[in-house]
Amino acid sequence: MKNLEPTTANTHTEEIIDIDAINNQEGRTYREWQFLRLRNATESARERKYRAVVGAPTEAIKLYWKAKHINYFLINDVYKQTEAGITDFKTFEEWKREGATIKKGEKAFPIWGQPIGKQKVATAENKGEEYTATEKENKHYPICYVFSNLQVSFIEKKAVAC
């Protein structure tokens, strides 16, 4: 488990979420800015997790908060505070399966994906093969992108006259 000690980094929500201010700066790609946004949001999420664990009134509640992943805190404590009405986050593919489309110009919320090593092991198992992930693969977490319910629209299907 990663260190739960809070950092001294400045982690105000508006600094984490203001992607437009980030995009106006020069010299970095969009992906690099998304990574920086995620890294800053992660620091805020770690602080929130730390406060939840330390402030837990019972040992059972403390264990409950320790078991929660950083993505839980990113989504529920950091990203949901950005705009009133956010109730759900899903990937592009999950929204697509539900018949929704992402609104033009919407920016995804970055979260941490499953470690590369676990992905490779799962792929090998699906093929009936064995794979042992390296330590480096198990420590590499890619960026995954999710969209909120406020960033999508549902297309109404028109009835076809016979």
Report what the structure shows.
This protein has 162 residues and is mostly helical. α3 packs antiparallel against α4 and α3 packs across α5. It contains 8 helices and 5 strands. The model is unreliable at 1-19 (pLDDT under 50). The termini are far apart.
Characteristics:
single chain; about 160 residues; mainly alpha; two-stranded antiparallel ribbon; 5 strands; about 45% helix; globular; disordered N terminus
How many whole angstroms does the radius of gyration measure? Answer: 19 Å
Instruction: Assign an overall shape.
Output: globular
Overall mean pLDDT = 81
Q: Please tally the helical runs, counting DSSP H or I stretches of 4 or more residues.
A: 8
Order of strands across the biggest sheet? Answer: 1-4-3
* Separation, N- and C-terminal Cα atoms: 61 Å
Tally of DSSP β-strands = 5
**Class by alpha and beta content:** mainly alpha
Spell out the helices and strands N to C.
HHHHHEHEEHHEE
The description of the largest β-sheet is: 3 strands, antiparallel
Helix content: 40-55%
Count structural domains: 2
Strand content: 5-15%
Low-confidence stretches: 1-19
Outline of this structure?
The chain is mainly alpha-helical and 162 residues long. Helices cover 46% and strands 11% of the residues.
Question: Secondary-structure blueprint of this entry?
Answer:
Elements: H1 13-17, H2 19-23, H3 30-54, H4 59-67, H5 70-78, E1 89-90, H6 92-97, E2 100-102, E3 109-112, H7 116-126, H8 135-139, E4 143-148, E5 152-154
Antiparallel strand pairs: 1-4, 2-5, 3-4
Helix pairs in contact: 3-4, 3-5
